[in-house]
């Protein structure tokens, strides 16, 4: 007798009837997903959640009566449920989406433009992953940065840091980077995120961190105290050696289904600086970054992976760990301090600097 596997129950919330229909039709094509209801605003959604008990909610960012961010805050406080934000590609929409990811949304999807050939290609996979991560989302995710000892002195030793992340990466990166001092090692980051979202995310990180955070541009010199975020969808972020180390943006084909790809970034760092780097892989779906991190470790670089307990999605770090690409696996709240310890020229370094989170 075959054991019946329960379907993932989804509630679709959007003020546009067309968008509700489109999202529902796409998700309904997956045999493991069941659309249990639709709602035009948060008030309808609140009542639907009480009666339908969905496993996952797709939520529009901009809606009448109560915006998606306000409603998400209420969901996370009163009825923790995995939420995938559906955002317009506007400055207001992308900033709100970054805020949503900070306060507990599982992931974000950009609303399609009329020119898009493929509409919401990853939505079904993200919905099912969100349902699987339900227990993690129901746990408090905030971490408090360790206080700085009075004798803390940090001086970068000349190495660079490369960090890869995907689903859950917004909060994870804030946790790690908020511990960096203003003279942190040059740091490059590939975070899987739709185009235009990375600019808002870089600006948000820049406000929260002591270091200078920008979206990477081709030819930008790698400098201490600077953190460079790969532009979403546009290009892979690599490094190159000219007179000095610089950022290089490549519009090559997708790798592992991604551009930017964590694997591309890690392999570039391995080829150019080898052991003079620290590689870090954080929470995310899939396996992007595992092979690149393995090449970094083989080249003699220190490598760190986020552990299962603190990963929203233990996909990318799990594959890297199983490939023995991870030298040391740590809970999220210890990763920032470990990066500083490894890259501190001073013998007594290694304790995280004070957080600048508000």
Automatic annotation (TrEMBL):
Residues 9-126 form the Response regulatory domain. Pfam families: CheB_methylest (PF01339), Response_reg (PF00072). It catalyses: [protein]-L-glutamate 5-O-methyl ester + H2O = L-glutamyl-[protein] + methanol + H(+); L-glutaminyl-[protein] + H2O = L-glutamyl-[protein] + NH4(+). The active site is at residues 166, 192, 288. It is found in: Cytoplasm. Its EC number is 3.1.1.61, 3.5.1.44. SUPFAM superfamilies: CheY-like (SSF52172), Methylesterase CheB, C-terminal domain (SSF52738). Contains a C-terminal catalytic domain, and an N-terminal region which modulates catalytic activity. Belongs to the CheB family. This is Protein-glutamate methylesterase/protein-glutamine glutaminase. It comes from Methylovirgula ligni.
